[in-house]
Structures are given as structure tokens and as C-alpha cells.
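Action item from last week, closing it out:
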Amino acid sequence: MPDELHIHQTDVELLRQFVETNDPAAMEAIISRHGPLVMGLCRRVLKNEHDVADAFQATFLILLKKAGTLDQFTSLAGWLYGVAHRVTLKSKARSLWRQKREASGTPMTPIAPVTDDETLNLIHDEICKLPEKFRLPLILCCLEGATRESAAEQLGWSPGSLKGRLERARALLQTRLRNRGVVYSLTALSTVLAQQAVAEVPIALASSTVSTLSLVGVGQQIIGGVISSEVVALTQGVLVAMANAKIKSLGIAVVLSLLMTTATVVTIRNLVTSLQRKTPDPVAAVEIHHPGVNLTLDEEGMAKERSKRHVKFMGLAMHNYLAMYGSFPASASYSKTGQPLLSWRVHVLPFIDQNDLYKQFKLDEPWDSPHNIKLVPQMPDIYAESATARSTGQTHWQVFVGPTMPFMGQKGMRLNQITDGTSTTILVVEAANPVTWSQPEDLSYDPSKPLPKLGSAFKDYFVAGFADGSVRLVPIDLAEDVLRPWLTATGNEPVIDF
């Protein structure tokens, strides 16, 4: 049981305390508070007790890995419920895949009519899709069994506001279920929700989960020596899915933002026409040319937006890699003997929606091995600036490697190691000379030598992505003594804006 101090702390305060001090009592308080909700969901979806325990541990391991992104939540109940739902579905899919593999050749069972279990899965799915202001009171009051007064206090709402949102949540859930062919009256729905309430967490499972989380720690890679292989697979699978969903939503936001700028208003009519004809997005269709090729103002503007969008996605991929592994990727992976194998551009593939391509690489072989060299022509569009570059596998997007750089040595840099500040540290730049995208080749930084040439697509600027996720156009003729402090991560030099 959590002590008196932890009882009165918020979820985020407890999580922060565990991350910063590795205090097991803080995590015990979180599991005491929300573990029964997670256990109830796991038990309802998964029938095997081993699968239930694995899904339970994976849910809280994901909480630990995503701890740095959850400060805005007043209660973790809704977030944990959504993650547990993802984990249980992943576990169920893996279980069915194993059964199918073991059956090898056995005729598939015909699709059965909707069962009670499938109906409950629909209910969980629709609860997860509710807006947060409706999902949270529903989970706290109907699933965790909190009183309205207690739930209102947790969320910082007035009792009247919580009552209204809870009633609206029930009605909204009823409508969503009806649209999927599941019909309940509000009274019946309340009864069903009450039956989906919490389940007791076995003391041994709660204790082993806290111990596992304490051993793993924030920022450590997930390793099978500490956690079962099934928990590792579930955790990594759901983290990648969450990262890809974030990338896709950002892509939509970028396109919408682009369409709303005054500089591109004249292109909207053409874009609508092209979408109706199922032709490509005009911004994505503009190929970037090398300096000296004349572009119209509209073409150059769209080409710049395309480059900035690609760098934005690369930066987001690196941050999602950071969220999973606790550090940015190293510039390359290495063999046991210290031989560079594959570029960072390969290792962020799962985070740019290219997991299938990533799985084709033999990670213990160099980029130009007989197997890996065949994958060069499959370079993702995000690394290409033209059809020619795409077909040859050449990319201009590179990182600086060397002392005080964000990329130095064989290990990636943690966020707190970027002492110069993330908004003033460049991660990715547009280099003048291209390299093969999977090759562990980037820009060498030597403070005693001139900087390598930058920029390839535009005469006056090169595109740069920063450690805080922002993207800027940097003047090509910017003086080296002004640019250098923007490249280092630990140089502690004063920076001059440009």
C-alpha cells in the first residue's frame, strides 16, 4: 500500500519522482492507483494468464519509456487505458499468429458471428476514441469506480462540469456503438461498463513490475536479459506504432499549415483538381533542382516546403527514436570489431513508416554487403531530392560527426547532454555532396579545418533541422564563425542569430 505522502501526489508527480530518484514507492503508488484498471482490461481481452502478465508489464514499461512526454496530463488513467488497449490487441494478434504458425497447413476456421468478447473489444475501442474530456470521467467513474467528487478533484474540474461531461460521454459512446451495430440503452450500457470494472493485481505481479521498471530505468535500451522476450516485443511494437501515428498526424498538420499560408493560396484550386483526379500533391510532386536551374517563385516556394517537410519528419523520427531508446541514434551502427555498418538513415526507418524496409536489412552486415547493397535503390522519398537521386540511392541529408557534435563516437547522445540547447543545435543539414543513403558516411567536423560545403538545391540557402524539432533555411554565405556554434552540442559558445 502506498504511504500517506504518495496518496496525495498527482500521477505526474509520482511518475516524475520515480524517473528522477528511482523511488519504487512512487511506482507502487501509480500501480496501486491504476493497475487494477489495466489488469481488468488485460484479463477481459486476453484469456491466458501469462499473456495477461506480459501485457500488464508492457503497459507500464511503455509508461516509463514515454514519461518525458506526459507532463500535460492531470490523470494517467485515460492514457494507460489507451496504451493497455493497444498492447492487448498486439498481444492477441501475436498469439493468433503463433497459433496459425503452429497449425501450419490446418484449414482456417470460418469467421464466427460477433461474440461477447468481440462486443467488449468494440466497447474498449470506442472508449479509446472518445475525446479526452469525455474519456477521462468515463474511465475514472465507470471503470475505476471513483466517486464523482474524487474524479472531479483529480481532474481539477467542478463537480457540475464532471457530471455533465460524464453524461455526455455515456451518450456519445452509446451513439458510436450503435453506428457499429451494438445497441444498448443508457441503463444497459452503464451496467456493461460496471461489469468491465477493475481487477485485482496479484501482489507478485505488482512487485515484479516495479522491480523490472527500477532495473530498466529511464533512458536505457530495452533488453531481453532483464525482461521476457514477449514483453520486449509487445513494448517495442506498440512504441513504434505510437511513433508512426504521431508522424502521420504531423504530416497532415504540415500539409494543412502549408495550404493555409497566403503564399500558396493560388495553388489550392489546382490541388483540389489534382486530388479529384487522384494525381500527386503538387508540393510533393515538385522535384528539387540544383543551383543554376531557374525555378519560378511558386516552384521554388513549393520545393523549399517539400525539403522542410522532409527534414521535419527526419527530426521527428529522431525524437521518436529518442523516446524509445533514451538517446538520439548514433551516426552509424558498428560491428563488434568497430567496423561501421549502416547509417543512422537506416536505423530511423521504423519511425518514418518504413519498418518493412528496415526488416529487410541484415543489421550485422555492412551497407555494401551482397545482401544490403540490393536495398539501396529502395531509398525512401524522404531522403531524395529528385527522381535521379531516388533511382541512384543518393542523398544530401547528412549529420556532422566529430568532437562536441550531436553525433560523435559509437553511442547516440542523450537530450540532457546537449548542453548548448536544443533550439541552437543543428542535427541534420543539406550537404553539397551526396552519399549513398545506407552508407555510414556523413560530414566530418574538425574545428581546425574549413567546414565542408553545404547546400545543393537552392542558390542562397541550405535546409537545417534542429534538435528541438524546428527547421530553418540557413544562408549559404553565412560566416563560418557564426555557423560553427550552431553545429556543436557541447561547445558552450555564444551564438549569433541569422
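Closing note: The chain has a mean pLDDT of 78.
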